[in-house]
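Today's session is about reading a structure prediction critically. Students often jump straight to the picture, but the first step is always the sequence itself: look for stretches that repeat, for charged clusters, for runs of hydrophobic residues. Only then move on to the predicted structure, which in these notes is written as discrete structure tokens rather than atom positions. Here is the chain we will use throughout the hour.
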Amino acid sequence: MFIDFFYALKAKGLKISLNEWLTLQDALNKDLAKNSLAAFYYVARAVLVKNETDYDKFDLAFDECFKGINSNDIISKEMLRWLNKEELTDLVNEDLRSMLNREEEPALSKDEIEAKLNERKKEQDSEHNGGNYWIGTMGKTSFGNTGANLGGIRIGGMSGHQSAFAVLGERKYKDFRDDRIIDNRQFQLALRKLRQFSTRLDIPRTELDINGTIDKTCTNGGFLQIVMEKPRKNAVKLLLLMDSGGTMIPYTSLLNELFQSVHKANHYKDVKCYYFHNCIYSHLYKTPECENGDWIETEWLFRNLESDYKVIIVGDAAMAPEELYSESGNYRGPNGGLSGFMWLKLLKQNYRKIVWLNPKMAPGHAPWREAETAVKNLLPMYKLTVAGLKKAMDELMLRK
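Below is the predicted structure for this chain, in token form.
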């Protein structure tokens, strides 16, 4: 099972070196886990996980390997169902102790509480709320949740006094992952990286230059000399091109989040947004419906939008090779006598900074996704996740 755990961690994407794995074995040989599955969890995580973004992957691998083990540390799903009661949350407050109005139990050590918990798990066969003996809610035992005991093991639910020394049955780190599909807030945080301030803009000098004022005043014998400067303005211009319809329909909400985030980020010098279906051809659509006639010519972009526009293309590149390479591959509208691949080449020739974001990008160069592989070889492509978006923004801001 120990080796199975190693392979499960690797399968979840954790990068574990041989030295780290040997370090974990050394920790176990020194009895740091003390024959406790919970202690082993924390020791293994401390040794093997280097970043909080991997905590959830570790938890999934741990659950996969040890959920069926015969151990006193395991809490059954049925017991967790008894304990996880959202309606009890409103009843948790600082006056809970006085409401219960029961005699205090003497303080117990962690080992004593764990021993009592293991006894109750063997005996208990039904749900309990209140009381001071069984595992349950709103009571005074040292295990359960929403109770008044200031120490103990919280299982499920919420702690009445936030003082438990162990928490079982939770998956707390799924929001820390950097490989999940992103939301509006994460879009906005990543888009803030697209900042390129310029003082060469032809605008009035309306902001106080503090350092310049100090220098001028000092060289002027101490007599105040005010120096003004041009306000720093973001010079980034953004062109957003999004695939719409067909295989992109499942990602409609995601594209809407991206669109809203771009337009909420009002610090750009200019933003243009157009749509296409599967690949870029001679025309780009003004709306996601991609209706014929409601478009602009792609060559109009080349003539009117300068090469310093930063281009973000969003699409799954899920098209047949003939649709990408054939001069008649565009069945939705005109193609200008060129294949989609040639139009992508023209786009690359006209704009210095382009990235392609793909919500379902295959790893590596997948032979079953020939069109995607061809686009990857032409343009920098990143998966539309938290980590992928950060890398794409870094690519757009590289000075080269």
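Discussion point for the tutorial: Residues 70-75, 91-100, 157-169, 197-201 have pLDDT under 50 and may be disordered.
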